[in-house]
């Protein structure tokens, strides 16, 4: 899929149908077809494949080719089936236009065209569109971190509420929820790290730009936001670990309580079982077998021994 945008009234607007793609200031390739790749290549821009984008070597993610610089960041998003993933997105910045190549759907690529006019960078050049898009990506990562914080607040209220009698199933559900947020946090941390590297690389290539001072200032401002979010992500990571430990501890306590109750119940039947075992032996000389009240006395001894064990358990607060 190919989306092409051009500046319009201070923002970005899709190119009208039939308009030449060469007029676009931003070309967004989403899971591109071969024909769409050829369209972009006709503009003098080499489009990397998904295999190239997934290479982990720094030379394959941040490099210059002719007048264009290629920058690849790993961003959280969704596949067409709705599955959340973190996949690479390549930003190809040339003097004429910005080209983005992606094979999943990070939300900023959908929201930025409708909010470009409110960007601090503006849309006056491909560099400013790139920085505005990066600003939107960082804002989205911040929103995800806020969402993780809200889920942690709700889960913590369940786990740490001393008045709540959380059942084992609820604690297990909380543990699964925390695990999901931990995976989301990992994708956000990877996104922040790769965005920081992209911005640092971009800043090093702005020396010859006529608007270099302003562009560097904008890039450094976004980088400061990234660094602040990294600190916030560390804080949330600490909270995630603490909440996981507390949830596991409560699950263990509940399991220990269950085992303790079963142990006391088993102890209640030990003395009666011993008495029944003694009088169930087949020795010839057992005078108690001929007592008139032997059977009631044996029953009474069983009940009394079980009662004594019960009272002892209550006194020791085992029940």
UniProtKB/TrEMBL annotation:
PANTHER family: MAGNESIUM TRANSPORT PROTEIN CORA. It catalyses: Mg(2+)(in) = Mg(2+)(out). It is found in: Cell inner membrane. This is Magnesium transport protein CorA. Pfam families: CorA (PF01544). The keyword Protein biosynthesis does not apply. It is a multi-pass membrane protein. The chain crosses the membrane at residues 261-281, 293-313. It comes from the Bacteria. Keywords: Cell inner membrane, Cell membrane, Ion transport, Magnesium, Membrane, Transmembrane, Transmembrane helix, Transport. InterPro entries: CorA_cytoplasmic_dom, CorA_MIT, CorA_TM1_TM2, MgTranspt_CorA/ZnTranspt_ZntB.
